[in-house]
Amino acid sequence: MPKIQDKFKELKSKNEKALISYIMTGFPNENTTLSIVRGLVNGGTDIIELGFPFSDPIADGPVIQNASTISLNKGAKIEKFFRIVKKIRKETDIPLILMTYTNVLYTHGYTKFMSRVKKSGIDGLILPDMSIEESKDYLKSAKKNNLDTIFLVSPNTNNTRLRKIVKASTGFLYMVAVFGTTGVQTKIHKYTIDSIKNAKKIVGNKLPIGIGFGVSTPSDVKKYVSVGVDAVIVGSANLNIIENTPPSKLQKRITEYTKKLKRSTRVGKAT
Amino acid sequence: MKIGMPKDGRFGDFGGKYIPETLVPAIEELEENYQKFKNDKSFQKEFDYYLKNYAGRPTPLYFAENLTKFVGGAKIYLKREDLLHGGAHKINNTLGQALLAKRMKKKRIIAETGAGQHGVATAMACSCLGLPSEVYMGYKDTVRQRQNVFRMDLLGCKVYPVKSGSQTLKDAINEAIRDWITNVETTYYLLGSAVGPHPYPVMVRDFQSVIGKEIKQQMKNIPDTIIACVGGGSNAIGTFYPMIGNGVEMIGVEAAGQGLKTGKHSATLNAGKKGVLHGMMTYLLQDSDGQIKETHSISAGLDYPGVGPEHAYLKDTGNVKYKSATDREVINAFLTLTKTEGIIPALESAHAVSQAIKVAKTKSKSDSIVITLSGRGDKDIDIVKQYLEKNAKNSR
Ligand SMILES: Cc1ncc(COP(=O)(O)O)c(C=O)c1O
Question: Cβ B177–A134 below 8 Å, yes or no?
């Protein structure tokens, strides 16, 4: 069974929701990435999203933009990325997702790129600028290589479209919490809660639903879990910690933060 | 496929809509409304009214007799888009889109700008139609085209300098897209060239096609050659589109900057590879990992690593030839046109002039060449002055 699907099944049996942690590879440098991953794994995260930088990340706010720029300035290359993934794979079999932009795949050729991705040990992909209309070749190559294709839906996605996106998605459905780019938010909007409830009705048991963009505190996690999401995705908040913590303390700090978030995903027997 | 008739928003392989999901409803709404109003008589009438009475259309087609004599070859004509209100062809598109935005009941207009001409044209169209406007502009461009920043200020338009990436047009588009994602329910994104996700490339082309249509009416005979500069490609596609299939030689001119071999240029069609940026598949200047490269041009308006998808298609089909002109050639053309005709062209437009001079020399006196003079050069006076002073110093 695909690893991401497996993970959701395992969590369900434990009455837990998934914590998905995003980081940017090569930020603040290549060597640190591995220790950050260890920090996340030790903290109990369930799935890791590894960002590969793109020069023009239109769906990202200042925090991830900055991390992308730094990673690129330090010489991020797709070959290096694959090497990092292989190193991570030697230490853990946690599900790994590559998050990047369409042009990175397109340039290398979907088919060739996906087989490299698979071989390196990645389980799925997220491309925030890949709309389902343009996804035919992408889906074909992903399927051939047994890679999950995780599409995003937005608070303004209508139900007809939502159904189409669910059809193209495997692994989980990525719900964008806000009208906006990635980044830490200070409040949870009512429209977000409404769209989660609506999506749950439409999606049913077909796919787990993850919520991301702006999630950063244990209380965010609790709130989203209470309205029934299957996963919470935390990104910019991790990068803020990475940016503001001295290297010697980073791994431990990441573990502590991740533990706190993970605790809030445990639903207990109540549900 | 009939040329220029996009199916599913595609010109062959090019175009499409590679966009974050949040923008999909907005793009669909835009497409629907554009289809509706495109053929709506009252919309067209209103558009024509503003083009004529506000922007100053039709623009003259001027026989550049002195330049023709100076070059000594084909007859050179200038399509005088530089005489339009605001000083460039950009107003054709901004009036069209601002009128559309108004009919769509949008309350807030955002735009990007490179040279500042599209920003100014947006601010003007919005002032005229009573809409508030906000413009993103690369920080580097706010410095080299500061006069246009002040013009936008005066017009009541808010200008946001963009300090990310290369701080030029590409980054201004990124920031405008991010704003649009954030304020998608209230905001209309008034894109300034024939780029971006479908339907922008088609819509901008249609609004700019008034250039080519007028040329057809104004020339007694179809010209032998027609030349326009290509940044994103809006003045060029507006010039070429009505001419496709008429046997006219069409040449688009890109910015070769310091030379194609130096890597410091923005000649996307001459040196780019296929890829996806700003919602479209097109030719891009990029590295082997698909990272977009920094571009260079003396003209801010051509300083862009992508190009409109219809141009990518017209290049591949061979319908249009795409050449390039270096900064040095452009300055020379700028000076030549200024001295021979008393017309100071925008540095963007001077790219087309440079190519026209080259081509005219090789043709006979009975041949005719039309240059789309996309804008006037007042905004570029400081840049030209600096360039000349620097070169005088270097040659001393
Ligand atoms: C005078 C002028 N010409 C040409 C351009 C390039 O744009 P496009 O290729 O869309 O016509 C610009 C852009 O700023 C401009 O100001």
Answer: no
Q: HEC states along chain A?
A: CCHHHHHHHHHHHCCECEEEEEEECCCCCHHHHHHHHHHHHHHCCCEEEEECCCCCCCCCCHHHHHHHHHHHHCCCCHHHHHHHHHHHHHHCCCCEEEECCHHHHHHHCHHHHHHHHHHHCCCEEECCCCCHHHCHHHHHHHHHCCCEEECEECCCCCHHHHHHHHHHCCCCEEEECCCCCCCCCCCCCHHHHHHHHHHHHHHCCCCCEEEECCCCCHHHHHHHHHCCCCEEEECHHHHHHHHHCCHHHHHHHHHHHHHHHHHCCECCCCC
Residue A148 has which token pair?
Answer: 């999950």
| pLDDT (0 to 100) of residue A205 | 93
pLDDT at residue B304 is higher than 80: yes
Q: Which of A81, A94, A121, A120 minimizes the C-alpha distance to A37?
A: A94
Surface-to-core class of residue A200, CB atoms within 10 Å of its CB (0-12 exposed, 13-18 middle, 19+ buried): middle
Shortest distance between the Cα of B181 and any Cα of chain A, in A, equals 5
Comparing C-alpha atoms, which of B317, B242, B311, B304 is closest to residue B278? B304
Q: Is the pLDDT of residue B287 over 50?
A: yes
Q: A179 vs chain B: nearest CA distance in angstroms?
A: 5
The answer to whether A98 contacts chain B (CB < 8 Å) is no
Q: Which of B90, B94, B124, B295 to mutate to test the pocket of ligand 1 (most atoms within 8 A of CB)?
A: B90
Question: What are the DSSP E strand ranges found in B151-291?
Answer: 158-162, 187-189, 225-229, 249-257, 273-277, 280-284
Residue A269 has pLDDT above 80, yes or no: no
Sort out which chain B residues have CB atoms less than 8 A from A78's CB and list them: 289
pLDDT of B320-365, one tens digit each? 999 999 999 999 999 999 999 999 999 999 999 999 999 999 999 9
**Residue B249, Cβ density class (10 Å: 0-12 exposed, 13-18 middle, ≥19 buried):** middle
Span from the CA of B367 to the centroid of ligand 1 (angstroms): 27
Q: What is the percentage of chain B residues whose pLDDT exceeds 70? A: 98
Q: Please give the number of the atom of ligand 1 that sits closest to the Cα of B118.
A: 14
10 Å Cβ neighbour count for B164? 20
Paired tokens of B272:
């780019």
The residue to which tokens 């099944």 are assigned: A9
Q: How far apart are CA A142 and CA B340, in angstroms?
A: 61
Report residue B232: phi and psi, to 5°. Answer: -80, -25
Confidence band of A271 (pLDDT split at 50, 70, 90): very low
Using DSSP, state whether B392 is helix, strand or coil. Answer: helix
How do residues B8-38 score in pLDDT, each as one tens digit?
A: 789 999 999 999 999 999 999 999 999 999 9
Total Cβ atoms within 10 A of residue B83: 19
What's the pLDDT band for B1 if we cut at 50, 70, 90?
Answer: very low
Q: How far is CA B393 from CA A140, B257, B259, B388, in A?
A: 60, 20, 21, 9
**Across B90-97, average pLDDT:** 98
